[in-house]
Design a protein that fits this description.
By secondary structure, the chain is an alpha/beta fold. The protein has a single domain (about 1-225), classed as HUPs (Rossmann fold), CATH 3.40.50.620. Helices cover about 30% and strands about 20% of the residues. It has seven helices and twelve strands. The strands form three sheets. The chain has a seven-stranded parallel beta sheet, with helices on both faces. A three-stranded antiparallel beta sheet has the order 8-9-10, with no helix packed on it. A two-stranded antiparallel ribbon has the order 2-3. α2 (about 75-85) crosses α5 (about 200-210) and α3 (about 100-120) crosses α4. The protein is globular and about 70 Å long. The protein starts with a strand and ends with a helix. The model has no long low-confidence stretch (mean pLDDT about 95). The structure holds flavin-adenine dinucleotide (FAD). Flavin-adenine dinucleotide binds near residues 8, 35, 68, 104 and 108.
Length: about 270
């Protein structure tokens, strides 16, 4: 089985995130890290292959961790390798900077199609959202670019390699849905069911030295004019820090916090 897991390198959500003059998020800082929700995607991908050990004489499974991003994004791949991914692919090209979700999916689609030509890909797994852009658009757009079925926001995934099908469970506010599709497929998983494993120390050490395949747009046959700021249909025009909430109350715990909190709740009609 061959599984591709899409991961993004993002500014840590606890860190101060700032925007450049051109409206793009400042990236490459020391706080940048693997998108937390992609750890769940990695875990889901690893469990998929662990659930179906290769039969005698069959090729070993391949879990490919894939990212589109600047040089610093290699750290997200190394985290994926440390967790147990077997191959790392980095699409790195300055022309990609500023790509919106559709343009990003175009590049990811070209990368997956290239990998699929080399050796068939059965499942692509993505996280439910990247914690910087938060559009959740990429998985569906990627499926559209590839022309593959998509099953999004799954919290359970069962692949039947022999029947070449996948069945997932999706919890919505109205129902518990069971959905099936044929392979190859694009999935996104929620943060509910795939608690990410902690990489072993040996895994972290091995990941530091593991090879990373770097591809640019030319290698993928992607026209630079169709990605980046120029190739994107959306543009961040203006960003401004969110104003402080006028009714913000700061309680310093000098022993009176409980009383202050009770007063505040009473004031607000909660008590
Ligand atoms: C504040 C802000 C607002 C934005 N608003 C918009 C907008 O409204 N519309 C728009 O088109 N773009 C928007 N963008 C740009 C968008 O963030 C990027 O295009 C981004 O690459 C993809 O979208 P996302 O971050 O929302 O990813 P999502 O669609 O939320 O990501 C879902 C999953 O897709 C995979 N994935 C996403 N990006 C990558 C990547 N680079 N490499 C590998 N896997 C990846 C991951 O598995 C991730 O969990 C915004 C960016 C910022 C910073």
């Amino acid at each position: 089985m061959r599984v591709v897991v899409c991961v993004k390198h993002v500014p840590d959500i606890q860190s101060e995130r700032t925007f450049r003059e051109d409206g793009l998020l400042r990236r490459g800082g020391d706080d940048d890290t693997l998108n937390e929700l992609d750890e769940d995607a990695l875990e889901a991908g690893l469990r998929l292959v662990e659930a179906h050990p290769p039969a005698h004489g069959e090729d070993p499974h391949d879990v490919v961790v894939l990212t589109v991003g600047p040089a610093s994004a290699v750290e997200a791949l190394r985290r994926g390798l440390a967790m147990g991914a077997t191959t790392a692919v980095h699409v790195r090209d300055d022309a990609v900077a500023g790509s919106d979700a559709i343009a990003t999916a175009r590049v990811l689609g070209a990368a997956v199609a290239t990998l699929h030509e080399e050796a068939p890909v059965d499942v692509v797994v993505a996280g439910m959202a990247a914690l910087d852009g938060l559009t959740s658009l990429v998985p569906a757009a990627l499926a559209a670019v590839l022309g593959w079925p998509q099953l999004t926001l799954a919290d359970r995934v069962d692949v039947d390699p022999a029947a070449r099908t996948v069945v997932v469970r999706r919890e919505t506010s109205a129902a518990t849905e069971t959905l099936r599709a044929a392979l190859p497929v694009v999935l996104s998983v929620t943060d509910q069911a795939f608690r990410a494993r902690f990489p072993a120390f040996t895994g972290i050490l091995a990941a530091r030295k593991a090879p990373v395949r770097v591809l640019d747009l030319a290698a993928l046959g992607v026209d630079p004019a169709t990605v980046g700021l120029d190739g994107s249909t959306t543009r961040v025009l203006h960003t401004a820090p969110r104003p402080e909430r006028p009714d913000r109350v700061v309680v310093t715990d000098d022993g009176s916090a409980a009383v202050a909190l009770a007063d505040y709740l009473a004031q607000k009609g909660f008590a």
